[in-house]
Amino acid sequence: MTDDSAKLVAVSEAIDSLCTIEITGRGVVGALAAAARAAQGGALCLRAARELARRVQPGDTVVIATGLPTYPWFCGEQDGPVGAATLARALVLGLAARPVIVTEAIHVDMCRAAVRGAGLYARGVDDALRLPTTVGVVEFPTDPERADREATRLLERLRPKAMIAIERPGANEHGHYHASKGYRLTDHCAKIDGLFARGKAAGVYTVGIGDGGNELGCAVIRDTVVARVPYGAKCQCPCAGSVVPAFVPDHLVIAAISNWGAYGIEAALGLVLERRELVHDRDLDRRVHELCAAAEANNNGPGLLDPGTDAVPTEVHGDFVRLLGFMIQSGIDFGRLYKEPRYPWLRHVEAPSGRSPAQREDIPR
Ligand SMILES: [Zn+2]
Asked: What is the pTM of this model?
């Protein structure tokens, strides 16, 4: 299903709708998603999947940045690392890509655990560039000068074709990083923005996935975040700036939970490549969450290390990927229905026109 058919658009719209339902009760995802769709012509997940499929050839590197230090532990949550791992899996299975996850030192263990949960080896960059089914997980510096040098080194070493930020804080207009409630996180965050800015300037496709307005990529909808999100216009730290990271990516995907944006891109990639298995299943989703939690990733809200994202339990995420998988299968089957009939016994039933469905050319494909 690689054309612009109405069916492809319909399933793509359904993916975006599912990914942006108000599940966490924050009350802002509707406005953020509408703004992102208006600014970019709709089709949030499909657009990202198509660009990835077009640009990433077998053996090419894709950088995935994640990790959001949560107050007061300043250690990350399952939103981000879980989606990074499952999206890495889809990129490996669908495009034979070589994903490399970049994050703070404190998040390296949980990202490695999540990657193993997704059924892939978690290693350093050298192994990730050399071995199949292997994801690189590397520490990126919090010190700005070291981060600058590391950005240059990594871009030369990896020569990525795409860079994806998932639930990733970024520097605002005053150079400060913020939690969604406006607390300052600057000292705890890897300065990954510069890596993305240099990549974009060199022609690398850059995508941000966010759910609250304080994530890298939300500059695309800055005005809406400032107008609609609590602390969006003015943080709670002395910089008194917005919580919106200044870097403007090529594309922004908004979801109710950032992991769901990653899941939505998996689904859209599965639709484009006609491969349902690119959307992971509920068993794998639970395993990724459990291993990530055991590596000290927070389930947000109550601050417990129980498996789940944004205080939504794993069963619900399992239901979510099950729905996505079924939608993709329907989209793929419907596209093929009159090419390779799913129900062969119908070939012999006369259609009202006198021709069998397999012969009818007036039925839209
Ligand atoms: Zn501030």
From this structure: 0.93
- Beta-carbon count within 10 A of 340 CB: 9
Rounded to the nearest angstrom, the distance between the alpha carbon of 238 and the centre of ligand 1 is 6
d(CA 70, ligand 1 centre) in Å: 15
236: CA distance to ligand 1 center in Å? 6
Q: Which of 6-20, 121-135, 147-161, 267-281 bottoms out in mean pLDDT, i.e. has the lowest? A: 6-20
Residues 136-151 have a mean pLDDT of: 98
State the distance from the centre of ligand 1 to the C-alpha of 192, rounded, in angstroms: 18
Q: What is the pLDDT of residue 354?
A: 59
- What residue spans of the chain are helical by DSSP H? 6-19, 29-40, 44-55, 81-95, 108-117, 125-130, 144-158, 193-201, 222-228, 258-273, 282-294, 314-336
* Confidence bin at 2 (pLDDT 50/70/90): very low
What is the Å distance from ligand 1's center to 183 Cα? 7
Distance 185 CA to ligand 1 centre (A): 9
Q: Determine the CATH number of domain 6-348.
A: 3.90.1640.20
